[in-house]
Design brief:
Helix content is about 20%, strand content about 35%. It is of the alpha+beta class. The protein has one domain (about 1-60). A hairpin with a 5-residue loop joins strand 3 and strand 4.
Length: about 70
């Protein structure tokens, strides 16, 4: 399954297996592994959301702010 990442105005895709993640991974661990793959400090993704889609893919994106 795929992890779709929106970071710094760009989209990236990773395979869960590529990052050593399993379907039961915690959001914290997902953000840590994605940050490492992007080459950024994990703190940059602290406020990111992990959206788990029904098909099994994940979307890691910035928190939406309205208003």
């Amino acid at each position: 399954m795929m992890i779709h990442v929106r970071y710094d105005g760009f989209s990236r895709r990773f395979y869960k297996e590529e990052l050593g993640l399993h379907n039961d991974a915690k959001d914290f661990d997902i953000r840590q592994r994605v940050a490492r793959a992007l080459g950024v400090r994990p703190a940059f993704l602290n406020r990111y959301i992990v959206d788990r889609r029904p098909g099994g893919n994940w979307i890691v994106r910035p928190e939406a702010v309205y208003g």
